Amino acid sequence: MDEPQWEGDAPSYEICSCCFFQAGFDDDGASEPVTVEEYRKSWLRYKGTWANFLTRRPENWDLREQLKNIDVDLDKEDKPVIRSIGHITFSVADMERAVIFYIHVFGVQPLLVRPNIAYFESAGIWWTLNLQENMVKEESKQSYTHIAFSVKEEDIETLQARLLKAGATIEESHQHNPNGENKSIYFRDPDGHLLEFHTGTLEQQLDYYRR
């Protein structure tokens, strides 16, 4: 480009022959403005083709080399920054009641129990109970937000019996279609958190909703 895209608050309004981005319009005056970085990512998804058919692309122009000048390396893959779920925290109004519930339902002993916090671990999942005495239980019942734990189908009946013995509230209205999404049990702990034991896999779930 012949001049900077912006000088202070003043855009150049120059259109880039390479990608057709126009400073002052695409990032400011358009009905859905985007930053130059967002625009560039979208353009690169379409292979970064030379946009302006009225101007000849310079003979030695190389997309990768041009992008490296602004610290964008096409050969460097974007790696996921999330490795796994670190831990899950539930707020509870009564620590003793919550600890007893999770011991009975999951069949594991806590790693640590203190008046304000407790730690559990099972199947590589670490979860924490955090005391919040002023918690309003009814607020959590308005949402479908939940955490699902993978279980074997042959263990569903045993788990249902455990839940009933522990005093869990079974949420019949949320149950899956067993012919498509496999079997599951939705239930609430004493503080109203919605949880699920689910026998299906991600691929089975996707196949069901693709139909």
From TrEMBL:
Recorded superkingdom: Bacteria
Pfam families in alphabetical order: Glyoxalase (PF00903)
InterPro entries (alphabetical): Glyas_Bleomycin-R_OHBP_Dase, Glyas_Fos-R_dOase_dom, GlyoxalaseI/FosfomycinResist, VOC_core
Cross-referenced Gene3D superfamilies: 2,3-Dihydroxybiphenyl 1,2-Dioxygenase, domain 1
Occurrences of domain VOC (ranges): 84-200
Protein name per the record: VOC family protein
Organism: Paenibacillus kyungheensis
